[in-house]
Write a structure and sequence with these properties.
The protein is about 25% helix and about 40% strand. By secondary structure, the protein is of the alpha+beta class. It binds flavin mononucleotide. Flavin mononucleotide binds next to β2, β4 and α2.
Length: about 190
Amino acid sequence: MDQIVDEVWARLHAGASAGKEHSPFTMLQVATIALDGAPAVRTVVLRRASREQRSVMFHTDVRSTKVAELRRDPRISLVGCDLDGGIQIRLDGVARIVETPPETRAVWSSSRPRTLIVYRTPLAPATPVASPVEAHAATHAGDPDSSAGFENFCLIDVTVSRIDYLDLNPTGHRRASLVFEEGKWRGTWLAP
Ligand SMILES: Cc1cc2nc3c(=O)[nH]c(=O)nc-3n(C[C@H](O)[C@H](O)[C@H](O)COP(=O)(O)O)c2cc1C
């Protein structure tokens, strides 16, 4: 079971470190509880995975719907899948919205400028527009200043408390539940 814990964090770390190459766990789907109580899910780029801090982190816009949802209920689930390897990793935890410098400033400064353009638009995500072009124009009217849009940038830092690992290997499917209790990961095999 310790090997499964190692494998999960190694895969998440590879996803977060892949840069332009991407790896199966670079993109994760993130579920929150919408303001009306319905499930809400979307794709994000995994930016950091830390086994020591049992955390995963992604970037987002403080004005986005998901941030409003997490302010109301910080419970969060993430899922990623290696289609070729037949591996699914699900994570449950609690999200912290990190919106204060210097934590955000350090990450902003070390991010590729291309990934930061989206934060420069004066239009909050999900603002109705007459046509897509209206939103493009607003984004590209950006200030060349490298801090432009910084006020809209935040990090979502998730402390993971439960992992569900599924391996659909043709020689035998395996599913494990890992729960963080009393300072360590405790694993249980489950029927897939
Ligand atoms: C490949 C891909 C990667 C994405 N990465 C992110 C991301 O890292 N952060 C983010 O906030 N949105 C990202 N998005 C957009 C989200 O999926 C979502 O549409 C947006 O954040 C608005 O979500 P919300 O209305 O639920 O807040 C990505 C979308 C795609 C297709």
